[in-house]
Amino acid sequence: MANNGEWDRRSLLRGAAVLAGAAATAPLLGGAATALAGSGDADALFKAGKFEQAGRAYEEILKTDPKNVHAARRRGYVGLLANKFPDAEKYLKMAIQLAPGDKDANYFLGDCYIRQDKLALSAPHWQAAGEEAYAKWFAAVRGEAYQVHGDIARLPFQQMDPIPLVEASVNGGPPKRFTFYTGAPNLGLTSTVAEEAGLSPVASQKIDFEGGTVWAHYGVLESFKLGGIELRNIPVGWSATESGEDVGTDSDGLIGMWVFYHLLTTFAYAGRQLILRRRTPETARKARAAATRAGTEPLPLWLAREQYLHSTGSFAGVAGSRTGVVGVNFGGGSEIAAGMRGETAEQLGIRTDYDRQIGTFAQSHPAVVYPCYPKEIRLGNAVAKEVYCYTNPNQPVNVPLPYGTGFDTMGWFSHCFWKPYNITVDFTDMNLYIARGAAA
User: Fold this and answer.
1) Cα separation of 215 and 238, whole Å?
2) Would you identify the CATH topology of the domain 38-139?
3) Strand partners, 189
4) Mean pLDDT on 32-54
5) Tens digits of per-residue pLDDT, 212-268?
6) DSSP for 102-117?
7) Which of 191, 276, 365, 415 has a CA between 20 and 30 Å from the CA of residue 86?
8) Does the fold of domain 147-263 match that of domain 38-139?
9) What pLDDT shows up at residue 362?
């Protein structure tokens, strides 16, 4: 729950994944982009989302001050955002060598290792970061995690709203209904499905969830089959109430970011299907070529704090428009096309209906938002005008570490925005491709 007005980090990071059958409706991503006029200040560049320039600025600081823990940690974080693992490891190890107890540097290095499936290496860093359940969980995984068998899967949406559903098989069992949400980290199951699959927890913890508490359990799943692709030896989570009942029943589980970044994933909303391909340099090359043929320019992609995807987009109101870093969330359950911080809506003159407040949850915590109607929201060539969105006037422009990403974003794009499009997310070259119409 709230701690001196700020969210508890463990709940913030895992709240979206706890309820396997339903995703949070208003992720805590967003914030007004910070204008920067030629400043060389590394922190200002980082907060403004100018990550490459910030990385170079932190390197310059380290040349003259090689014991600067903050610069080393931030330079490592910049590498991690772009999945540049050698850079991330180099500078995060430098920060930890200078300050072994630095929780954020250990947290980032733990994340860096799990992105590379070096789970055993990640465990001591999660422990040092104060994440004991993660440390036990990843230490318990034996052998190669996320083994990919098969080359391509096309999973038709069984439904689009209120949450998208696809079918998957757990440990060779009959098809189950899974939703997906990139704002959640791991693969999640209901407690019923976990019991049917014969899973036993290697770690458990109580966490805050929507005004109460639930038990989150962590284990290792032998097989998860998505059409023509099977993943083996996968970290998996499930949750239960105090009495052992399922937390939600809208689906049998939730596919989170960690599954998707092991594959080349196309969220083919327009064609109502999820397309998964084995992630290789060759499939990344084919994705680039297909985007070029379709006249689609690659958009940058950044991955922050285990599961939060970002790119570059824009919002516009009667007072002007602004381009900057935005969150991009695929799946989940939400009727909005986008969400934004209150300051963003206010500064851009976006029409907001303050007479009709909406009580909702953001990352499993209570939140009050208001309907708003921007003149335009845009991500590359994808555009929506005068569409229904949310704004939260109480969200700060920038949620600093350890509770948020530490950089400014204007808002986030949500489930309804994507419906006319297909979007391919390439974690090899860290690009996002969005095109109108059904995917080939």
Assistant:
1) 8
2) 1.25.40
3) 238, 253
4) 72
5) 789 999 999 999 999 999 999 999 999 998 878 888 889 999 999 999 999 999 999
6) -HHHHHHHHHHHHHTT
7) 276
8) no
9) 67
Assign a CATH topology to domain 273-436. Answer: Cathepsin D, subunit A; domain 1 (2.40.70)
106: Cβ contacts below 8 Å, ≥ 6 apart: 96, 125, 126, 128, 129
pLDDT for 23: 35
Going by C-alpha positions, the residue among 39, 83, 69 that lies closest to residue 57 is: 39
- What per-residue confidence (pLDDT) applies to 11? 37
Per-residue model confidence (pLDDT) at position 10: 40
Query: Band of the pLDDT at 438, cuts 50, 70, 90?
Result: confident
User: Per-residue b/e over 335-348, b at no fewer than 16 CB within 10 Å?
Assistant: ebbbbbbbbbbbbb
Cβ partners under 8 Å of residue 228, min gap 6: 150, 151, 152, 153, 154
Distance CA 15, CA 9 (A): 10
What is the total residue count of the chain? Answer: 440
Q: How big, in percent rounded to 5, are the helix, strand and coil portions of the chain?
A: 30, 35, 40
**Res 320 pLDDT > 70:** yes
Nearest partner of 219 among 198, 202, 195, judged by Cα: 202
> How far is it, in rounded angstroms, from Cα 173 to Cα 126?
33
* pLDDT at position 183 over 60: yes
Which residues of 258-415 form beta strands (DSSP E)?
263-268, 273-278, 299-300, 302-304, 308-317, 320-328, 338-341, 351-352, 358-362, 365-373, 376-379, 382-384, 389-392, 411-413
Confidence (pLDDT) at 29: 30
Contact 429, 284 (CB under 8 A): yes
Q: Where does the pLDDT of residue 19 fall: very low under 50, low under 70, confident under 90, or very high at 90 and above?
A: very low
Does position 8 have pLDDT exceeding 60, yes or no?
no
Segment 133-159 shows an average pLDDT of: 96
The CATH fold assigned to 147-263 is: Cathepsin D, subunit A; domain 1 (2.40.70)
Two structure tokens written together for 232: 């083996």
Number of Cβ within 10 Å of residue 124's Cβ equals 16
CA 19 – CA 292 distance, rounded (Å): 39
